[in-house]
Amino acid sequence: MADKRPNADCDDAAPDTLPLGLTSEPSETAARSRNSLNTLSPALERQLMVLSTVWDATRDALMVTDERNAIVAVNPAFETVTGYAEHEVLGKNPSILASGSHTAAYYEAMWAQLNASGQWEGEILNRRKNGVVYPEQLRIQLLRDPGTGELLNHVATFADLSLQKAAQRKMQRMASYDQLTGLPNQVLLRDRAEQSMAQARSGGYQLAMLVLDLDHFKAVNDSLGHAGGDELLRQISRALVNVAAPTETVSRRGGDEFVFLLPRVEIHALRLIAQRVLVALADPFVVSGREAVVSASVGVAVYPTDGADFDAMLNSAESAMYKAKESGRRCVRFFTEQMNQGARDRMALLGGLTRAADRGELRLHYQPLVNLNSSEVIGAEALVRWERPGYGLLAPAHFIPEAETTGLIVGIGAWVLNEACVQQRRWADAGLGHLNMAVNVSALQFRQGILERQVAEALSESGADPKHLELELTESTLMVQPEEVMDTLQSLKQRGVQLAIDDFGTGYSSLAYLRRLAVDKIKIDQSFVRDITVYADGAAIVRAVIQMARSLGLRTLGEGVETQVNRRALQVLGCDYAQGYFFGKPMPADEFEQWVSRSHQTPLARR
Ligand code: C2E
Ligand code: MG
Ligand code: MG
Questions:
Q1: Could you tell me if the CB of 394 is within 6 A of ligand 1?
Q2: What separation in Å is there between the alpha carbon of 503 and the centre of ligand 2?
Q3: Is 285 helix (H, G, I), strand (E, B) or coil?
Q4: What is the pLDDT of residue 469?
């Protein structure tokens, strides 16, 4: 009943009469009111005694103020709730209890309603004498003279809600979180999943649910004892939470079953994510000094393909989890069979690729690079192939993307650099002329000085001349970590290595930026070379690139030249070099050598 009205300063209003004649025992006013009881009828006297007892005994705080809103009476519960004794508040305005949490408009609305209807009820935050703010359920009623309608008193009743609120919060927590592990329980999981599904629907993306069931947990549990089993579950929960991203929910369904909710996933990354969960459990846990080894079976369902709502998704993920159990546990299965097949293929490919270099299954093919003006061969681009047992010779498109996402490209890249440098040196020794060797490098090789080390090693072991080694990088590589890339390129340049930008035009880099990186050559992407003769605009783009490159002192090479028309067009536009099936396809080293000897006999210009 804090009164924020400007005229409500009633501190000086002494309580000379108590309109209800009800007060608590030890106060002065109580004695006065008891004297006045002597003149009342026995029935009224009894009634007032009852009311007086209620006033003292009720757990609700009671506060009466006069017509100017100065406090004239409070009951013992008032002191319990607010911490103020009666003598501290008599004559004061109830605003001494205000917590400052409500706006002036809030109090204005309260008073407007009080004046209009004679009562107000609501939840309000007040401040105890010790400064603590607490919630209370407050009810205020106006008392008017029945005859004149004149305002006599305000009667406020309020109950402290703090305990009730704390209990409510505890209940809510108990209803949403698993008691043992503190993880969200299924109620909260359902809630979050339904929200995420709605977002995925409107955003047009996919969501995944992973059900994870510990393998042979019963046996582990039995051996550790009940308390040990509980401790293990808590440790497992922490391990799972550690591998989850902040947006993901890890929940416990009960027993030894956990559910991961991934609110937004790319399908191709899902396998690795699921694998990450298994890896989280790979190290043994230590419970009361004993090691416990656990593994899990994981089932994956993808929304909306595998289920239209929470229950359907959970069912699908669970049945996938049972498939994982059937396939020998400690593995991941997808609900959609096709994804299992895709995942199995990918795992087999990665397994083979990991050992491909050691098993000698990688090959390099060499594609000629030609000077457009002199028609001389200036070198070769080394292009990797994988002789995969049972599959034949695989082109890079079948394994380089996987190698890049898994990091295997770093090892493959090292092998390619060594092999290419060895080959370059062999050709030089065999008197094939000073052929340049172009080698493709991936963004991952730029990390932590890997590329510099690999190049240094390849050069020193082969004895190849750095100025005949040309590294091809793509525009996207340059964009990933510009700072790191810049440093690496600088030190490679100092070694004398040449740099080329591969597939130029497919990214967003500007030629001026490339110049700053000390790049020597631009390889214009095949798509533009093909367009030269298809659209008039196509020629205009290539001409612009060539002219700008020239003005910056950069050399240009046209990729994917397949016809004499392509070749002529590039030459007319002022391009320096070319590469493409028209001159020669990528071929093994010995074929390439024969090709070079032939080209010396039959100049390329006449082909
Ligand atoms: P890239 O570096 O742009 O290589 C040129 C690709 O175009 C080669 O495909 C080549 O065979 C193909 N090509 C050349 N001339 C023509 C033509 O006239 N017409 C057509 N249609 N295609 C032509 P390939 O060998 O399949 O290699 C594909 C890509 O794989 C390469 O593109 C390169 O980005 C990557 N790659 C190859 N070897 C390596 C490697 O050792 N390391 C890395 N990181 N990537 C590699
Ligand atoms: Mg290339
Ligand atoms: Mg290219």
A1: no
A2: 7
A3: strand
A4: 98
Please say whether the beta carbons of 71 and 92 come within 8 A. Answer: yes
DSSP strand pairing (577-578 vs 555-558): parallel
CA of 367 to the centre of ligand 1 (A): 9
Ligand nearest to the CA of 384: 1
pTM > 0.85: yes or no: no
**What is the rounded distance in angstroms from the CA atom of residue 382 to the CA atom of residue 587?**
9
Q: Distance between CA 303 and CA 322 in Å, rounded?
A: 19
Could you identify the atom of ligand 1 that is nearest to the CA of residue 409?
Answer: 44
C-alpha of residue 383 to centroid of ligand 1, in Å: 6
Among protein residues, the one with the nearest Cα to ligand 1's atom 22 is: 560
Query: 211 has which bridge partners?
Result: 259, 299
- In ligand 1, the atom with minimum distance to the C-alpha of 395 is 26
- Which residues crowd ion ligand 2, with CB under 5 Å? 440, 472, 502
Ordered alpha helix ranges (H), 407-517: 409-429, 450-462, 475-480, 482-495, 511-516
- Give the residue among 548, 587, 580, 550 at the shortest CA–CA distance from 564: 580
Q: Are 39 and 125 in contact (CB under 8 A)?
A: no
Residues in the chain predicted with pLDDT less than 70, given as ranges, are 1-38, 480-481, 534-535, 602-607
Per-residue confidence (pLDDT) for residue 22, from 0 to 100: 38
- Nearest residue (by CA) to ligand 1, atom 21, is 560
Nearest ligand by distance to the CA of 382: 1
Q: Which H helix or E strand runs over 69?
A: none
**In the structure encoding, which two tokens stand for residue 62, read together?**
């009671």
Is any ligand 1 atom within 6 A of the Cβ of residue 562? yes
How far is 564 from 174, CA to CA, in rounded Å?
Answer: 77
d(CA 411, CA 488): 18
> Distance of CA 332 to CAs 42, 297, 317, 325, Å?
86, 6, 11, 9
The DSSP secondary structure of 129-197, one letter per residue, reads TTS-EEEEEEEEEEEE-TTT--EEEEEEEEEE-HHHHHHHHHHHHHHHB-TTT--B-HHHHHHHHHHHH
Between CA 487 and CA 196 the distance in angstroms is 43
Please report where in the chains the tokens 């229950």 appear, as a residue: 311
The two tokens of residue 173 are: 């927590």
pLDDT tens-digit profile of 38-73? Answer: 677 888 899 999 999 999 999 999 999 999 999 999
* Beta carbon of 367 within 6 Å of any ligand 1 atom: yes
Q: Tell me the β-bridge partners of 290.
A: 287
My answer on whether omega of the bond before 42 falls inside 30° of 0, hence cis, is no
- The 3-state DSSP class for residue 13 equals coil
Give the three-class secondary structure for 501: strand
Regarding the beta carbon of 580 and ligand 1, being less than 6 Å apart is answered yes
Minimal-distance CA residue to ligand 1 atom 15? 580
- The answer to whether the CB of 383 is under 6 A from ligand 1 is yes
pLDDT given for residue 37 in this prediction: 53
The verdict on the CB of residue 525 being under 6 Å from ligand 1 is no
Is there an atom of ligand 1 within 6 Å of 437 CB? no
CA distance 469 to 341: 41
Residue pair 449/410 in contact (Cβ under 8 Å)? The answer is no
